[in-house]
Amino acid sequence: MLRRQFSLAATALVLGGSALAQSPAPVATAAYPAKPIRMIVPFPPGGGTDILARLVANKLSEQAPWTVVADNKAGAGGTIGISEAAKAAPTGYDIVMGQKDNLVIAPWLYKNLPWDPTKDLVAVAHVAYTPVLIATASNSRFKSLADVIAAARAAPGTITYGSPGNGTSIHLSADLFEKAAGIRLSHVPYKGSNPALLDALAGNVDLLVSSLPSAMGQIKAGKLRPLAVTSGKRSSSLPDVPTIAESGYKDFDVSTWYGLFAPAGTPASVVSSLNARVNQLLGNAEVKAAILAQGAEPQAMTSAQFTTLLKTEYVQWKGIVEASGAKIE
C-alpha cells in the first residue's frame, strides 16, 4: 500500500518511460528571455529547496541570453512564496521552485489559501526527487535505526526528532514511519531545515528527519550519522545507508520532489522553452553530479508529465494529512 500510494518512482512509471527521452525540443521564442528571470524560492537560504534552486538558477545563467536570479520569499510553510508566484504576471519572468510540501500538502493544512496548485499554476519542469533522511549526531548513542526503534518501544514518546516544520512532507514521512514501526516519537517542529539540523548536531533533539540536500554537508563533514532513508531503494548519494524497507518494514517508500512552476496563463511557448532548457540542463553530466552530491536524484519530465504527478499526489496526500492529524494553528 505504501509503495502504491507514495512511491515517486512508481508514479514516474505511470507517467511513461524515460521522461528525459520524451522532453520536447527547444521552442523558438523570439523575445524570450529578453530580461532576467526571477526564481522565487519559498524557503529560507540553506535548505534543500534553496540549494537546488540556486544550482539550477546559476547553471541556467551560464548560457546567454539566460539570466536567472534566485529570490527567497520564505514563510508559512512555503505558501507565501507560492502565493507571490501565483499572482505574478504570466509572462515567464516570475517562476517559483516549488515542492511537495507547499503544493500538495500545504493546501490541506492551511485554511483559505488564495490559490489552487492545479488551477493557478503551470507545472513547468520537474528537477529532482529525494528520499527523507533519518539521522542523528555522530556522537549519539543511536548507531542504527534498530537502536531507535528499540529505545522508542522501551520508553514511548521520549525519543525526540526535529523536522523543518509541522505538516511538512518530512514530518508526515516520520509519522508514517512511526505507524509502520508501531512506535511513538516526540516531534519537535522548527521553522526550516537549518534550525532543526543545528539542534540535532547540538544534541538538543535525539534525531533529525530531513531532506538529504539539507543534511549532506554535515554528513560529509562527519558530524551527522545517517540511519536510514525513506525511499524504496538506497540513495545514489548514500549507497551504504539502508532504507526503512530494508530495516524490516517492507514496501515503505516515500519521497519528495522539487520543480519549477509559473503562473497560470503563461504562454505555452514560454513553458516549452523553459522545460526544454531545464531538461537539457538535467542531462548534463556536471549538473547531474552536482545534484547527486546534494543527496537528490535528477529527473526530467515533460510539462504534461509533471502536471499529472502534481494532480495525482494532490489527491493522495489529502488522505495522508487527514490521517496524521497534523494542523497549522
UniProtKB/TrEMBL annotation:
Keywords: Receptor, Signal. It comes from the Bacteria. Residues 1-21 form the signal peptide. SUPFAM superfamilies: Periplasmic binding protein-like II. InterPro entries: BUG, Bug_dom1. Pfam families: TctC (PF03401). Belongs to the UPF0065 (bug) family. PANTHER family: BLR1237 PROTEIN, TRICARBOXYLATE-BINDING PROTEIN. This is Tripartite-type tricarboxylate transporter receptor subunit TctC.
